[in-house]
Amino acid sequence: MTTTIKSGRLITVLAFAGILGALTQTLVVPLIAELPVIFDTSSTNASWIITVTLLTGAVATPIIGRLGDMYGKKKILLIALVPMLIGSIVCALAGGLVPMIIGRGLQGIAAGTVPLGISLLHDVLPHEKVHGAVALMSASMGIGGALGLPLAAAVAQYANWRVLFWVVTALTALTILASWLVVPRDEERPAASRSFDYAGAVVLAIGVVALLLGVSKGSEWGWTSALTLSLLIGSVVVFVVWGWWELRTPHRLVDLRATVRRPVLLTNLASVLVGFAMYAQSLVIPQLMQLPVETGYGHGQTMLQMGLWMAPMGIGMMAVSPLGGWVTRRYGAKTTLVFGSIIIAVGYGLSTLVTGSLVGLMLTSTLASAGVGFAYGAMPALIMATTPAKDKAAANGFNSLMRSFGTTASAAVIGVVLAQLSTPMGEYTVPTLSGMRISLLIGCAVAVVAAVLAAFTSSRRGVVASAEKVLAEASDEGVDAAAR
Questions:
Q1: φ and ψ of 240, to 5 deg
Q2: Is 222 left (phi over 0), alpha (psi -120 to 50) or beta?
Q3: Residue 55 above 60 pLDDT?
Q4: Sign of the CA dihedral 364, 277, 143, 11?
Q5: Tell me, what's the pLDDT at 84?
Q6: Which of 267, 401, 290 is nearest to 336 (CA)?
Q7: Helix (H) or strand (E) run with residue 137 in it
Q8: Are 381 and 142 in contact (CB under 8 A)?
Q9: What contacts 482, CB < 8 A, 6 or more positions away?
Q10: Among residues 74, 79, 308, 356, which one has the fewest Cβ atoms lying within 10 Å of its Cβ?
Q11: Direct distance between the N- and C-terminal alpha carbons of the chain, in angstroms, rounded to an integer
């Protein structure tokens, strides 16, 4: 049990590690238009600088979670941050496209720090601090992404792009040092039980990469092209094989039997939808703010101005984390998830009515982001309430993977809608106002479905009973470990 001061330090360090890992996802978004020029390549090739980070993050997250359960979460947390440090240095020094893609791929591995941090906080914090801390840690995925936009936009507009990566390098080095000093060492499994499912990890990685590539590149390659269809159909086949293997191997990467229990299954499905909703406004609102005033609905903001208008999104997520923790502690995680999903839907619905106002867009996007903060904070509590102590990090990693599927699907669906509902303007084709409003309404509808799913996850009494069972299992494991 940590003291009050150490608890505060621990929450700060782990939340910052999560924010830093998430920040890399949006770090180069303001540079999208300049990347082909910087690296003397095509827009298609340059897009891999963003795509590869999402792919490596999605693949690494469940694997890092399982390794954390096996070898100790602090140890794996430190190991997961090292590739981010190396990748940031490689990107800062990159003289061509290939080194840049390699560096960005290494940065993406740090996405696995979030589920590790969640399970670590759940293990070591006093009970009264757990829900608020876990809510903040879980929301760090959205906070980092939101704060990355204005930071990257400012650097892109007023400094050399390499400064971005040197800043991340310095922050990562400080995070590694702080984690080593502040994060307590946790228990690891006995050597005899530390058998890692290498086959399951490889097959899962193949399935995840095939699915995310097919969805994220489908509009670019063509949804009916042989490559896209091969990837999507192939991913289904691979996931079936992976599921068959996981149900039979004694040292599974993910406990699939646990994932089909109603609370876990519905929470993971809601995670996909909330991830979709979170990302949709990031695709619509910035464009609406930056489109020329001549369109009749654009606001003509610069890249930096847009980033500053969007910054309150991250602040909103951070601000509601303590409140979300209190709601979860008082009324249960199910209530928090339903409440958060409804707030997201309201934020999206209102945003369709205020497209002509920058202040209105800022307020409604912040409201929707606050809902994401509530929802993200509730998901780990629902997952861990029915997960044995020895599988907590892996279960959270799988839940984070579900969110990644949601954001990737959002990029594909909203991208198609905006592309279909567009109009020529000079040399360019820009989304129409109706296309943007429809995209926002899709985000609203998805959030409503997430609220409905959340409402059926479980009763509060059921979650409490499951939590008591899990805590009893953890206590028994601790007694056994002490006896050994």
A1: -65, -45
A2: left
A3: yes
A4: positive
A5: 94
A6: 267
A7: helix 127-158
A8: no
A9: none
A10: 356
A11: 21
Rounded Cα gap, residues 128 and 400, in angstroms: 24
**Contact criterion met (CB below 8 Å) for 377 and 139:** yes
CA 463, CA 472: separation in Å to the nearest integer? 14
Model confidence band, residue 187 (pLDDT cutoffs 50, 70, 90):
low
What's the whole-model pTM score? Answer: 0.80
Angle at 263 between CA 17 and CA 470, to 5 degrees: 70
Cα–Cα dist 87/52, whole Å? 12
Which has the closest alpha carbon to 184: 124, 257, 274? 124
Amino acid type, 353: L
Which H or E run contains 301? none
The CA distance from 201 to 397, in Å, is: 13
Q: 119: pLDDT confidence band, cut at 50, 70 and 90? A: confident
Q: Can you give the length of the chain in residues?
A: 484
HSE on the CB side for 189, CA within 13 Å? 16
Instruction: Kindly state the tokens that stand for 207.
Output: 């399935």
Longest dimension (CA), the chain: 75
pLDDT, one tens digit per residue, over 304-320 is 888 888 888 877 787 88
- Average pLDDT of the chain is 82
3-state secondary structure string, 56-94?
Answer: HHHHHHHHHHHHHHHHCHHHHHHHHHHHHHHHHHHHHHC
Instruction: Please tell me whether residue 254 adopts helix, strand or coil conformation.
Output: coil
- What pLDDT band is residue 11 in, cutting at 50, 70 and 90? confident
User: Which pLDDT belongs to residue 312?
Assistant: 84
Beta 422-425 vs 428-431: how paired, if at all?
A: antiparallel
Assign 3-state DSSP to the chain and report helix, strand, coil percentages, each to 5: 80, 0, 15
